[in-house]
Amino acid sequence: MTGHPTIGGGAAFLGRSLRRWRAIRRCKQTHAAELLNVSQATVSRWENGSRTPDPDERAAITRLLAARLDAPADRQLARLVERSTLPLHLVCDLTHALLACSAPRARQFHRDVGEVIGTSLWPCASEEIVRAEARLPAIGWYDAPGLVVEAETGARPGPVIDIAASRFRWTRLQLSDGSFARLVETVCTA
User: Fold this and answer.
1) Does CATH place domain 8-65 in 3.30.590.10?
2) Positive or negative, the Cα torsion across 152, 172, 147, 141?
3) Does residue 31 surpass a pLDDT of 60?
4) For the whole model, what pTM was predicted?
């Protein structure tokens, strides 16, 4: 599994997300342009959907918008996930980088969680997870927090973690800085 065809819901999502990111920070397009090493007009075109970022620009936007657990409330969310007795983990909704993990989930990974925090779990996605991800734009996943999706997955050994056969639930959460995280819960194992 290489690359992520729909990461972040595509270019239109990145433009809307960049606009939301700027609004939360009260950041002008000119400042965002400086951070991304492009012109203000380019930022404007991304945000209004008239221009698609090239792969390097997309990578820069993704780095800028990636979820971080910097605020106290977000660190508390991570602690709640880590202390949960349920198999669950928290990932950046844009990059799928692991942000936090419960002990029951860590046991399923068969790896030290410290080695995996900050690593994208996307290369481990099963075909069922890839299909579920591809459906997210159609249901408005990238338009609002709080949406919940349930799906089935088969087992798949991966380069970072192993995926167990199960029914899973994704919940989209907005963090304090306006970025989005995804809570991944195992509803039941196969």
Assistant:
1) no
2) negative
3) yes
4) 0.82
